[in-house]
């Protein structure tokens, strides 16, 4: 309708003016004084609720008017009647009101929309600002983070601690008045100081290097000088040979030996060195020498490539004969393997121990290469002829001479436990079968060569030369002692076999002047014969008899009484005393088990043996024991009480020994203890 | 003690402790060993419990006699008597409580002491030994108050009759002498070897063992072991044992004796030998019965061996203690 036209004429909103809405409606064009009708101002004044009521009223009025008109029309009134016309004008007015109201509603709506839009704009602007600020904040935070993470290279340098720094650095660098407060300055100062120190040290390093170079050069020069001396020295040595011979210094000989010694296997070498050293230092009667084939020894140590060339040549020759040659039988092969396993090194050592009386103990030491053990063979050479004592046959037998030098070291088995496996491969059951050929593998021999096997008892933790040196002195002393003991026994035995008990003058005081009982027989026995005796079973049961012992039988007689003494002698005589077991045949058979007095006699020689040792080294123990047995038998027979068994007549053995009492104690023992120099017998 | 010394050892004396749980034994080297019977008899006994808990040298010469009082062990060495407190011994302390020597006349050889007994009535110790005399010592003061002389050769064994207060002594001279303990005077002298039924001239005349039980007396040695009735002073039974007996005891209705030969002989009063139980030593010197303790009621014998046989059932050897 004409609302658009009204809108076109709408002027600008006048805000400052309170605005009276009822201004004259008229056609004012460009006239400032003309009052315009401002419907928008009117809008602010009117209440929407009222307008709504007005609208509803107007609609209701219209509806009513229409109704009336309808009625009137229905009533047959003319269209142009006044009432209808009146009502029609009223309707038109109402229509105009409705239009105004519609216009107002539209205007309100537009206003609302504008306001909303404006607010939204404002909000958008603020939002954008907010976003910008947030973005900036984030950016700044990242920057801060990066700054904080920054690791300057200076932190990787290790600086001296602050206290040290303040102490050492000179004042112009440390500037304590500044740096104590300011961390940054402090760090700078420290870095400065570090730099200076490093420069200084670098200087020192350069100088040291230069010095080292100089010294190196000097050493080189001196070395050249020394090597130039060598040919001159050789000439001098050659020239000195005749001088050596003239002065009898075997310098050259020792050199040659040292040369050969280079080809010795290590255990023999250790033994050579240690024995030689011991001989020089402590024992002038000990000498060591090397014997054997040096070339073979050299051949052993030659690398296998050389021999391969030879082999290929010989192989070619052999191939031609191959068809003729038969393959060796299995037995022979095994035999060869055994021989190979038991092979000895071509070089051997010979150690000679000389004694004061001129007899020499020769020891030959061999090294079994595959078994890694040393063996020894012995030989005794004496100045006098040693025949004549039948019972002494075993004494100097080279097989048994060195038996049990140390307790239970009988040398029949190899001390190296690894050999067991090697033996199994080639079918050797015991090493004992080969001992007579190859020598005895005693444990002390291994120790002298510096070989220690874990099967031994106490481990000393020493090996090699230290082990050898720790055993050398004792072993040599034992060897010498053994030889002397055996030689002494030899002499004693030849005397005993002639029924003479050799008692030296130092031991005369142990026995009375007159001893009537005498030794009539002295024989040797085998182990078998010994164990079959009836009166030695107690010794066997006590475990005091071993296979390596020597067994003898002494027979002492006086009148009709015959005393048999079975002797067990340990190879370590006289360290271990011989053990006597007695059996008396006189008016019946009695032994130490049945007769307490015979047991007392056994005690006299077995238990109180320290009295009978004689002068050191106690080699007269056996003969003194036998002499004491004779004395005790005298006492026993003479103190036998006169029994009333119906036989009259004088006693067979008149009392000659002086005794204070003939019986003492519950077992009524006889007095067997001889007192010197009073010469009477008493009880223990 | 090496193996050779052990081989030549002889055990001469034994004594049980007052509580009956320990055994002390003396040997010819002058050592005394204390064994714990409770350990050796317990069900989990081992080899180690058969060894002595304490072994020390008590005297120079052999220990021929051991005797236990209520608190002490008395041991006799060469002419001296030492006392050891049992409580100390069990704690393994070897300090002697006291040592006394009877006064001897000769000075050339110190005589041994072969037998010791206690007279409970006046608390005195009676010893006999190598000087042919019996010495009586008062236990409280330690003074030797009297000497009984009469034997012509050394004394082997002593015995005490409580009811009549009489001392019996047997010696090498073959005589059994009876002394009155109150008056110290000899009452009787029996020379056993003069009786034909007992005498064994092929051995000798010495008397080495004596035992009494009210009116009965056992004696033996060179002559056969015989049972005597003291009232009538005559032998009623003679035991046909082959060797010379060294110790005999009355036990219930049996007589047990040891001597030469490796066995313990059980005999009846009538004169028969009921049994001979074999032992390890080849001849025996001492027999002891532990009657003080009913738990450890054993018999132990020792002789010419380093082992002491223990019999829990008196008919056979159970095990051996060894020095």
UniProtKB/TrEMBL annotation, chain A:
Compartments reported by the entry: Nucleus
Region (Disordered): 1-31, 295-332
Domain of life: Eukaryota
Gene Ontology CC: one annotated term: THO complex part of transcription export complex
Bias (Acidic residues): 306-320
InterPro entries linked: THO_Thoc5
Entry's transmembrane regions: none
Biased composition (Basic and acidic residues): 22-31, 295-305
Keywords: Nucleus
Pfam families linked: FmiP_Thoc5 (PF09766)
Family: Belongs to the THOC5 family.
Protein name (Swiss-Prot/TrEMBL): THO complex 5
The organism of origin for this protein: Cyprinus carpio carpio
Lineage of the species this protein comes from: Eukaryota, Metazoa, Chordata, Craniata, Vertebrata
UniProtKB/TrEMBL annotation, chain B:
Keyword set, alphabetical order: Repeat, WD repeat
GO CC aspect terms: THO complex; transcription export complex
A Pfam family it matches: WD40
Annotated SMART domains: WD40
GO BP field: mRNA export from nucleus
Domain of life: Eukaryota
Renumbered ranges of WD repeats: 148-189
Family membership: Belongs to the WD repeat THOC6 family.
Protein name: THO complex 6
High-level lineage: Eukaryota, Metazoa, Chordata, Craniata, Vertebrata
């Amino acid at each position: 309708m004409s609302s658009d036209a009204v809108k076109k004429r709408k002027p600008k909103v006048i805000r400052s003016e309170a605005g009276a809405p009822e201004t004259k409606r008229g056609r004012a064009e460009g006239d400032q004084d003309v009052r315009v009708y401002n419907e928008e101002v009117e809008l602010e004044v009117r209440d929407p609720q009222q307008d709504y009521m007005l609208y509803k009223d107007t609609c209701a009025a219209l509806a009513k008017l229409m109704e009336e008109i309808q009625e009137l029309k229905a009533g047959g009134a003319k269209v142009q009647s006044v009432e209808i016309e009146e009502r029609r004008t009223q309707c038109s007015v109402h229509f105009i009101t409705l239009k105004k109201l519609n216009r107002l509603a539209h205007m309100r709506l537009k206003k609302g929309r504008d306001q909303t839009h404006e607010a939204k704009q404002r909000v958008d602007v603020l939002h954008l600002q907010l976003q910008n600020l947030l973005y900036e904040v984030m950016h700044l935070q990242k920057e801060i983070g990066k700054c904080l993470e920054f690791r300057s290279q200076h932190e990787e340098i290790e600086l001296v601690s602050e206290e040290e720094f303040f102490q050492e650095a000179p004042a112009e660098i440390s500037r304590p008045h500044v740096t104590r407060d300011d961390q940054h300055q402090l760090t700078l100062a420290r870095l400065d100081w570090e730099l200076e120190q490093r420069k200084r040290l670098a200087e020192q390093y350069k100088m040291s290097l230069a010095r080292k170079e100089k010294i190196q050069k000097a050493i080189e020069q001196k070395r050249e000088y020394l090597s130039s001396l060598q040919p001159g020295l050789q000439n001098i040595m050659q020239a000195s040979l005749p001088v050596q011979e003239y002065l009898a210094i075997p310098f050259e000989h020792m050199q040659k030996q040292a040369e050969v010694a280079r080809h010795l296997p290590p255990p023999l070498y250790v033994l050579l060195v240690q024995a030689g050293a011991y001989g020089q230092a402590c024992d002038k009667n000990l000498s060591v020498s090397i014997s054997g084939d040096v070339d073979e020894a050299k051949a052993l140590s030659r690398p296998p490539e050389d021999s391969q060339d030879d082999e290929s040549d010989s192989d070619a020759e052999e191939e031609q004969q191959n068809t003729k040659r038969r393959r060796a039988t299995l037995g022979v092969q095994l035999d060869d393997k055994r021989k190979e396993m038991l092979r000895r090194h071509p070089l051997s050592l010979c150690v000679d121990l000389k004694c004061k009386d001129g007899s020499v103990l020769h020891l030959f030491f061999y090294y079994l290469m595959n078994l890694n053990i040393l063996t020894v063979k012995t030989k005794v050479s004496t100045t006098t002829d040693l025949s004549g004592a039948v019972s002494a046959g075993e004494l100097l037998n080279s097989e048994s001479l060195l038996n049990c030098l140390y307790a239970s070291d009988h040398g029949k088995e190899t001390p190296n436990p690894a050999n067991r496996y090697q033996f199994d491969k080639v079918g050797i059951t015991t090493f004992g079968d080969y001992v007579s050929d190859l020598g005895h593998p005693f444990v002390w021999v291994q120790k002298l060569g510096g070989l220690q096997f874990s099967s031994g008892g106490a481990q000393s933790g020493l090996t090699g030369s230290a082990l050898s040196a720790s055993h050398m002195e004792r072993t040599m002393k034992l060897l010498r002692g053994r030889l002397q003991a055996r030689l002494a026994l030899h002499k004693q035995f030849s005397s005993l076999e002639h029924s003479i008990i050799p008692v030296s003058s130092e031991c005369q005081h142990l026995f009375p002047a007159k001893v009537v009982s005498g030794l009539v027989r002295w024989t040797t026995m085998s182990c078998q014969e010994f164990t079959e005796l009836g009166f030695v079973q107690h010794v066997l049961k006590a475990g005091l008899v071993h296979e390596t012992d020597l067994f003898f039988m002494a027979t002492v007689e006086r009148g009709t009484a015959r005393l048999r003494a079975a002797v067990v002698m340990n190879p370590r005589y006289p360290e271990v005393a011989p053990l006597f077991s007695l059996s008396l045949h006189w008016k019946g058979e009695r032994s130490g088990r049945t007769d307490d007095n015979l047991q007392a006699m056994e005690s006299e020689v077995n238990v109180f043996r320290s009295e009978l040792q004689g002068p050191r080294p106690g080699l007269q123990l056996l003969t003194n024991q036998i002499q004491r047995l004779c004395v005790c038998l005298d006492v026993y027979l003479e103190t036998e009480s006169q029994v009333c068994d119906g036989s009259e007549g004088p006693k067979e053995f008149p009392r000659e020994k002086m005794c204070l009492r003939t019986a003492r104690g519950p077992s009524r023992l006889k007095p067997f203890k001889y007192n010197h120099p009073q010469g009477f017998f008493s009880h223990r | 003690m090496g193996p050779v010394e052990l081989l030549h050892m002889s055990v001469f004396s034994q004594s049980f402790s007052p509580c009956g749980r320990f055994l002390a034994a003396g040997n010819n080297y002058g050592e005394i060993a204390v064994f714990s019977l409770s350990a050796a008899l317990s069900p989990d006994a081992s080899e180690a419990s058969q060894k002595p808990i304490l072994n020390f040298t008590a005297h120079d010469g052999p220990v021929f006699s051991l005797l236990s009082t209520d608190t002490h062990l008395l041991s006799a060495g060469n002419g001296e008597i030492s006392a050891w407190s049992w409580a100390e011994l069990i704690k393994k302390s070897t300090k002697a409580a006291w040592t006394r020597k009877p006064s001897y006349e000769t000075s050339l050889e110190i005589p041994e002491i072969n037998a010791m007994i206690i007279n409970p009535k006046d608390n005195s110790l009676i010893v006999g030994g190598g000087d042919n005399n019996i010495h009586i010592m008062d236990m409280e003061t330690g003074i030797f108050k009297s000497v009984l002389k009469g034997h012509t050769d050394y004394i082997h064994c002593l015995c005490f009759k409580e009811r009549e207060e009489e001392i019996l002594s047997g010696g090498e001279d073959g005589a059994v002498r009876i002394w009155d303990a109150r008056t110290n005077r000899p009452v009787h002298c029996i020379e056993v070897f003069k009786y034909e039924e007992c005498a064994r001239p092929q051995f000798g005349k010495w008397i080495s063992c004596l035992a009494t039980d009210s009116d009965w007396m056992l004696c033996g040695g060179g002559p056969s072991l015989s049972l005597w009735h003291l009232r009538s002073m005559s032998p009623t039974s003679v035991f046909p044992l082959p060797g010379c007996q060294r110790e005999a005891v009355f036990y219930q209705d049996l007589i047990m004796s040891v001597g030469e030969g490796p066995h313990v002989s059980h005999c009846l009063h009538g004169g028969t030998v009921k049994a001979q139980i074999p032992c390890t030593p080849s001849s025996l010197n001492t027999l002891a019965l532990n009657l003080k303790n009913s738990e450890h009621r054993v018999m132990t014998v020792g002789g010419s061996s380093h082992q002491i046989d223990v019999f829990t059932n008196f008919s056979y050897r159970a095990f051996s203690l060894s020095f």
